[in-house]
Amino acid sequence: MKKLLLGFLLFAFLVSCGNKKAKMNPFITITEMVDSVGQKADTLQEAEVEEELKPMEADELFDDFVFNYASDDVLQKQRTVFPLPYYNRDTPSKIEENFWKHDYLFAKQNYYTLLFDKEEDMDMVGDTTLTSVQVEWIFLKTRVMKRYYFEKKRGMWMLEAINLREMEKDENEDFVEFYTHFVTDSVYQSKHISHPLQFITIDPDDEFSILETTLDVEQWYAFRPIMPTDRLSNINYGQKNEDLSDTKILKVNGIGNGYSNIFYFRKRTKGWELYKYEDTSI
To answer: Do the Cβ atoms of 201 and 280 come closer than 8 Å?
Structure first.
């Protein structure tokens, strides 16, 4: 009787264990795992969509964009086409993203310069319809130009190529040669200043008024600011910078400091001369 009772209890225990195991449906478990992976995949896809490049407010005006581009490492990589075509004189190559070094352009300076042939061309700076702009470095001593090609596509500015080469005759070479001499030789400079020199500045008695007067050479040396001597930057919005032009305008803008100077040059029979100087710094 004891053996029969023990056998019955053992049978009941095994049945009980079997029922517990039957409740663990392996198909349900796998389905739950697949659903979990699917949810993670959906999350990753959503993240990728969020990371997709989109226009930003600074894209509307190129100047706003380029300062963001120059100072933000993440944005710079996002807005550079990789592998980036790079032309060193006649030698083409491509820069892969992992070899790219952040380029501050002129963001580490406290100023940048712009070149124009005519005063009306300066209005192009605020043009929001531009789709192609080049940022340039002009190295005065070597006469080498480094040009960055930016294109606006789908509402976003992108760097698409860089070109490094010697300046050509139709790219301000004549003026650059004069300017280099002008800013490094004070005797030469004195001989290439108009007499008298037109001077425009903010009225010291009324900061909302403009004062137009003239300076003689001695006064010019008292008022003259420091002018770039090693290289000039330029943003080409589409304005013509031709060697054949008889007038050149060099605009020096401060970066975050209210500095604003404009130098007006013209070509006469004796060569280039500075005929007007404008200082409206705040």
So the answer is: yes
d(CA 132, CA 130): 6
Nearest residue to 220 (alpha-carbon basis) of 186, 176, 253: 186
Greatest CA separation for the chain: 135
Q: How much is the pTM?
A: 0.80
Q: Which domain holds residue 147?
A: 57-184+225-266
pLDDT tens-digit profile of 107-142?
A: 999 999 999 999 999 999 999 999 999 999 999 999
* Number of structural domains the chain divides into: 1
Amino acid identity, position 172 = N
Domain assignment of residue 150, yes or no: yes
Q: Where are the alpha helices (DSSP H) in 152-227?
A: 173-184, 186-190, 217-223
pLDDT tens, position by position, 33-80: 334 434 444 444 444 434 678 899 999 999 999 999 999 999 999 999
Token pair of 162 as six digits:
């860089």
C-alpha 275: how far from its chain's center?
A: 32
